[in-house]
Amino acid sequence: MKKLAAILIGLIVVLTGISLAPQFLIDQNRLRQSVKEVFQRQTGLELKMGETSFQLLPWPSFQATNVVLTRPGCTPFVAARSVHADMSLLAILNREISFQQFTVKGAGIMLHRASEKDCSTWLPMISQDKGAVVLPGHDGRVSPRWKVSFGGLHLTNAELSWQDDLSDGHVPAGGHLHIDSLDLAGMRSASPWVDLQGSHDHTPFTLRGRVGPLNRLVSAKAEQKDPWAFSLGMTLGEGEHQDHATLDGVMRDAHHLQGVNFTLSGRWSSLQGMRHLFPHALPADLGQLEGTIRFHSDDGVGSTSAATNGADMALTDALLHLPGRLVPDQIHVHLGSVSLPAGEWHIAAPLQLSDIQIDADSAQAPLVLQGQAIWGRYAWLFHGEAESLQQARIAAFSRDPASVGLKLNVQGQDRTLSSLFNRNDAAKTDARQDHVSFDLQGQVGQQGSTLALSGQAALLQLPDIRGLSGLLVHDGHVKGQLIMGPVKDAGVSSLSVQDVEFESQEIGGTVSAELPVQPEAGLMGKLHLTHLDGDRFTYAPIMAPTETTSPAGIHQSEDKSQLVQKPESAPAHGKTPTGLLTQWFGGMATRPADIDVMADRLNVAGIAYQGVHLHLLGLEGRLSLSVLEGTVQDVPLSGEIVLDGSQEPVRMGMKADPLILPAGWVQTLLGQDIMFEGPVQLDGAIGTEGAQSAALWQGLDGQIGLSLVDGRVHRDVLAPLAGPEASLLKLGSGTMGLRCLAGTVRFDHGQAHFNDMALEVKHLSVIGQGTMTLDDMSYTLQLVPHVTLVGADFSTPLVLSGQKGTFHIGAQGKDQATLNTANFGNDACAYAVQQARAGRKGLALPARDEGGSSKAGNLLRAFGLGGN
Q: Of 702, 686, 703, 688, nearest to 744 (Cα)?
């Protein structure tokens, strides 16, 4: 028993001695220095350690604290709080440090690409042409070298961060990931196992699978003989928002990432995790992505060896360049939805794409794209087909001139069918369209594109364009060419439409134009209208109010941009002179413009124009619209409107020699309610200048004559004009025939002076004069109404004053200038029209109703019955 106890005590002493011997017999500093030299020789990295310890029992192991790996003179690559590793005893006898299980806790991994030459790569690996690393203080003697190998790596609670001082925009300049755990098992085997769990901005992710031999991946000297296979599974997010993907493939040269062939497949239910992980790569709101894509690497063009002039490239740098070398071989992808808000990618209205399918069976097979789109109030089905997947890629990304054949068909979803069968209210559209389709076919490429355009529609509601919102076109057809210039850094350099022919019930003609797609580009074009019937245009109900001006007439009652009703505050300091023009005309105010418009027949608000020729010219903030030719009932038209915002103050001017416009347009421009209908002839010239709308209105100067003949007047306008004799007339509501409304207006120092005014409707005629203060729109009119009833004349001079819808009828004061009624003669209309036109030719004045019928008929007509 004593012998057994002695043996046990001796064994314990021996084991204790063996375990403590390394602490006393091994030179810790020398061993630490040897490990540092081995690491630097094999990796090129400097190794720094705090406290270290080695033990032999129960098996050899190594432990260190405050471990730092760094490139000489660069940012530390790894900083770990503690490192523990078990080592193989047999390997040590063969001068090899073989870590069986290398455990790192609390590590910070920092990838920093700096501008310094030695630090300009993410992670340097010893190249084949660099030779061995020369260590400081080496005496040149040949000594046996130690090797370092790893059997397994276990990383917990680590932070991975990166910073790129040389970022070219392909990847974020900085970022970080949290690694909960990373397990690499069988690192010396032919198929190591990878298990990574981490998070990014509270979005968890995992990566699990098998890869090829790690030495072929990280070592430039490893022989790349057999294919390097990998199979990985990835997840992003958690719960119902978790996304899944798999990556399977092989590489011919793993270290240089050459000869890559792989298949990416997966299903992303929401892509929320992907957006959090790659916010710059996915700006749009994507959802429900699933499918398969097969890639191979193009090792000839843009390869890593070419990019570095033959020098070896670090693995991480090669990985960053890999996306640019990937070539798709097969695509089968379904995308549930893509949402682009207004303003994203220069889209004016919100764009919602859904049920998108992208297919290509091989590189030589056609690339097909189809799906549905909702743009603003419009719903479309689209189907596009490129000549081949390979040609589409070359045309899109190659620097060499190349193009690809493209076919695109867009069909509008009929509003009736959409409302009948679609129960999803969010997907419904209130835009009216029936049997609408457009086709594009031609060649598309980086160096330029030419596409043939054709389309037809039984009913089409035009998009939300200023002045056209809600406009309906019936039985429309269009065909022509769409030409795009080379694609540059700022996008398409130019865009034009050539020989576009369009025809519908409402409008027809041809157009060729250069459209502005670049910030400084202008609008140049020629428009030839064979016919335009504005009275046939109809408007669909518009859900939201828009500030538009109708080109068709007076049927729209939206609020317009007014010179009178909406005075602005003074412009902010430093505001450009073109501010007002930009407010009125948007981006076209400062762009060059040269538009020539010719129209054979125009019918607008009941006015028939013939042979109209207009020219719009814009340059450096100055816009001019010239009426070069045109007639209305054989009355030649001529005039010009100029807006000059090239310098302060803004200047405006109009010359009419003469111009004939719909009365509704004139009243709308002046901010007045619609009271008169018919053709208004303008003769004269006026001008103004000012820094804001109110100043422009009050600064009017010049004289203009206005004459409206053979028109209509709203009956409620006549009561104040008739004065006390209004009780003799049963005016009622609606409109009635107007023989004339004419007069001259002289603008001077914020006032408008009305002279030689005359109005005649049936048996009521009014002559007068007066003034209006432009600041508050208050007016005072001296009127002499005449009512002829059953052969008797009734006339009482009066003074009509008012402001903004309110009026007062009073007697003429003694100090007021007396209206010279003798000048008007027997036919006040004829005199007033002649004065307004200043001797120019104009529309014919209808003959006066002389009362040739019975007295009873005259009486009925005077009461507003039995005629116009």
A: 703
